[in-house]
Amino acid sequence: MFGPNMDSMREAGGDATSSVVIPVPFVWRHGGRTIYLTGSFTRWSEVVPMSQVEGCPNVFQVICNLVPGYHQYKFLVDGEWRHDEHLPCTNSEYGIVNTLVASGPSYAMHPQMLSGSNMDVDPKAFREMVRVAEVPPTHMMTGTSEEDLCVSRQRISEYLSGNTVYELLPESGKVVALDVNLPVKQAFHILHGQGISTAPLWDFSKGNFVGVLSALDFILILRELGNHGTNLTEEELETHTISAWKEGKAYLNRQSDGHARTVTRNLIYVKPYDILKDLVLKILQNGVATVPVLHSSLEDGSFPQLLHLATLSGVLKCICRYFRHCSSSLPIFQRPICALPVGTWVPKIGESNGRPLAMLRPNASLSQALNLLIQAQVGAIPIVDDNDSLLDIYCRSDITTLVKDKVYAHINLGETTIQQALQLVQDSYYPYEMRSQRCQMCLRTDSLHKVMERLANPGVRRLVVVEAGSKRVEGIISLGDIFRFLLGFA
User: Does residue 465 share a domain with residue 345?
Assistant: First the structure.
């Protein structure tokens, strides 16, 4: 790792000819093992190691000499890019970053905090400086009145009812659709190769979209074959088409009498000018992650056009953008998430939604994980150590990594551990940006608004609530949890 380079800091932070530099303390108060700092003052190309404060295991600090001016920065916490949500921040080309304006009087430091030319901070003085900051602000500790809740929900509902799905359509993009007559094997190779977990299905004979193939289908196929005492072979996946699997005509879905069981489910979709609230209700009521946006003209008899795959993340991004500068008009936005009935929590930590929090150890079998994903009706399971500290997360979409190198043809689900399965995910060729979205965390004291802002980022489906420092899992909050709470669903 690189250390701070004063020349590059001076050039990147402001006037390169300026001889004035200001010692600015940077503090990370939310725990971790290895913390680094980077920012505009290092041209975003170098990282500065941060030191743990003696007596404060969750607090890390470093002092950098900056030229006066506006600076942006971010933290690298145990390999994950983070920003401090309790400090001023903004959106930039590097995602959400913290900001500061360095000026002489604002950052004049007490002489006791400076020790020697290496700018180390005296631990005792530093602990005094950060002690108050570790206490949650007063407005975060207050309760939530029924009136505040009703007012906030009413304003969210009005926004969703007054805007259409058209707001979600990107200016440009790519949407993958699959022929319903493709072999299952080929279909899942495509999903994995494209880095997606869901694709609409097109039936040329009907001239229409007829369904959706998702990672859940692959999980069900693996479980069905496991129940029949067989391993999934490449030949079986080659001979069974998506259509056969969906219609229940393949061997995988035959009943004991040998007759095929017909499974029918109408395609769930929306049109561009449907209201956003209808889209959200369809996703929540049908338990799906994505809904195709289709456009067709009955007058000319043209085929329906697939415009987009709508998700709750896209809707949440619109909500956050609309209320960004008037979030004070929604009283519940500033409440800590642990004080709201949102998400799934460890008992006595937050207001639980009534469901148990599903967690697994790394030595649990892949079969156990798949069964739990189905039975608990969740999209991901936190993987924890013996102290319930977060190690990783196993998602439904991770199942598609089994197609790489044809792993599905020779593994035994009951003998393969979660740790081995996660290694396959890490060895996958997904880009770093996608991997970094896998295991996003937050703290119980984070406000609802900050949690919503993070969930609105592309690729983020859930946040694991952890204890600062130990990373002990306290809860999990998904996109669906947020919308069920905002709309008043049980």
Answer: yes
Q: What is the mean pLDDT of residues 376-392?
A: 90
For residue 488, which of 356, 338, 332 has the smallest C-alpha distance?
332
Rg (CA), the chain: 25
In this structure, are 24 and 127 located in the same domain? Answer: yes
Could you tell me if residue 157 is inside a domain? no
Position 134, amino acid:
E
pLDDT digits (tens, 9 = 90+) for 150-182: 888 999 999 999 999 999 998 877 888 999 888
Residue 285 one-letter amino acid: Q
Q: CA quadruple 177, 179, 182, 184: dihedral positive or negative?
A: positive
Residue 322 maps to a domain: no
Amino acid sitting at position 202: W
Q: Give the CATH number, domain containing residue 54.
A: 2.60.40.10
SS3 of 273-335: CCEHHHHHHHHHHHCCCEEEEEECCCCCCCCCEEEEEEEHHHHHHHHHHHHCCCHHHCHHHHC
Which residue(s) pair with 292 in the sheet? Answer: 309
DSSP assignment of 400-460 equals GGGGGGGGGGT--TTTSBHHHHHHHHHHS---HHHHTTTT-EE-TTSBHHHHHHHHTSTT-
**CB of 97 within 8 A of CB of 73?**
yes
424 lies in some domain:
yes
Report the number of distinct structural domains present in the chain. 3
Task: Report how many helices (DSSP H) and strands (DSSP E) the chain contains, helices first.
Answer: 15, 20
Residue 226 · residue 414 · CB < 8 Å? yes
pTM value is 0.65
Tokens of 369: 């994980």
Query: What CATH number does the domain containing 443 carry?
Result: 3.10.580.10
Phi then psi for residue 440, to 5 deg, are -85, 140
Question: What type of residue is 179?
Answer: D
pLDDT of 90-104, one tens digit each? 887 777 888 887 755
Q: Which residue has the tokens 């097109």?
A: 202
Is the domain of 307 the same as that of 339?
Answer: no
Quick one: 307 and 426 in the same domain?
no
- Co-location of 425 and 350 in the same domain: yes
φ and ψ of 208, to 5 deg: -155, 165
Do 344 and 469 sit in the same domain of this protein?
yes
**53 pLDDT band (50/70/90 cuts)?**
confident
Q: Which residues pair with 389 in a beta bridge?
A: 472
- Strand ordering across the sheet containing 441-442: 344-345, 473-478, 462-466, 441-442
Domain that holds residue 455: 331-486
> Do the Cβ atoms of 426 and 436 come closer than 8 Å?
no
